[in-house]
Amino acid sequence: MRKLVVLLCLLLKLTILVPMKGSAREVTYPNNDLLISLEETAQRLNEEHFIIVDTRSEGYTEGHIPGALPFDAAQLADKSHPVDGYLIRAEEFERLMNELEISNDDEIIVYDDGDDTAATRLFYALELYGHKKVRVLNGGLKAWKAQGKEVSTTPSEERKGSFKANMQANLEVEQDYVKASIDHPNKVLFDVRSKAEYMGEDVRAKRGGHIPSAVNLEWKKVLEDGEVPYFKEASVIDQMLEEAGVTREKQIIIYCQKAERASHMYFTLRLMGFEHLRMYEGSWEEWGNDPDTPMVNPSQQ
Predict the structure, then answer these.
(1) What is its EC number (predicted)?
(2) Are the CB atoms for 156 and 70 separated by under 8 Å?
C-alpha cells in the first residue's frame, strides 16, 4: 500500500495541466516542477514567499498578474562588458534582486508573454547565482489572459527582501573551453539560433555561420504553434532533440547570438531532464566577431 501511495505521488508530481481551448490536457516532463501551471499559480497568489516576476520590457502598467513584481530583463545585460548582452556578474545581480526585494527562501515564478526569452533569461541567471526555487509559467501572460484569469493594473506592494548570490561556476564556459570542445566525442555544441543564422545567410556579427561541429535546432521550435505558446509535449521535444543530435549522456554546450535564446533552450533541457549543461555566455556575439576563431559558413561553400 505504501509503495502505491509513493507511486501516485510521483505521477502527480510529473503531471501539469495545459488548458486547450477551454479544456485541459495532461502533459508530463521529467523535471515538471520547473514549469508551473496557470491553475497552481492562481491558487497561490496570496502566499507570502510565492513571488511572481513580470519580466517584460513594457506592458506592466497596462496589465499584469496580480501581485507580480516588474523587472525588465534587459537589466541582466552588462553594459560595461566588451561582449554585447553578456550577463551581469554576481555583485550586480545581487543588487538587482535586492532592489526587487527578493530573498533566497522565496519561490520565484517568472513569466513574459510566453514566446519570448526574458523569463528564461532570468530563470538561468537565478540558477547560475544559486537560487534553488525558480519556475516558469507555462504559456506566460498570453495563456493567463486566454483563460480569462484576472489581470491587475495595481503596482505590487513593497516587501522586504535579502538576496545573496552563490555562483554555480560550472554552468558557464568561456571561449577556450568551447574551442577545445569542437569535435569532442562526449560533448555537443548546440546552436539554437535560426537555421538562416546557422547557415551564414542571416549575419549578425562580423562573420556569419556557426562553430565547427555544432548542431542546430531553433529555440522556439519547442513551443506550440498558435495563439498560446505552451511547451510542446515531452515526446515531441525529445524527438526533435534526438534528431538534432542532442542526447542526455553527453555534455551540452548551448549558444545563440547573445545567450538570450540559449537561456530558453537551457530551461527546456532542464525541463527535459538533461543534467550535463553548459552555457557559452559569449555566444556568437563573441565568436563571430573574433577573426581568429574557427567557423563554418555553409552559405559560402
Answers:
(1) 2.8.1.1
(2) yes
Contact between 16 and 35 (Cβ < 8 Å): yes
Cell triple for residue 212? 565547427
Using an 8 Å Cβ cutoff, are 108 and 53 in contact?
yes
Q: For the chain, list the domains and their CATH numbers.
A: 17-146 (3.40.250.10), 169-300 (3.40.250.10)
Cα 215 → chain centroid? 19
Determine the Cα–Cα distance for residues 263 and 122; give it in Å rounded to an integer: 8
Task: Kindly report, residue by residue over 227-256, the tens digit of the pLDDT.
Answer: 999 999 999 999 999 999 999 999 999 999
Q: Grid cell 551564414 — which residue?
A: 200
Please state, in angstroms and rounded to a whole number, the distance separating the CA atoms of residues 299 and 236: 29
Does the model's pTM come out above 0.85?
A: yes
- pLDDT digit string, tens, across residues 276-294: 999 999 999 999 999 999 9
In which residue are the cell numbers 525588465 written? 72
Q: Among all residues, which ones are annotated catalytic?
A: 256
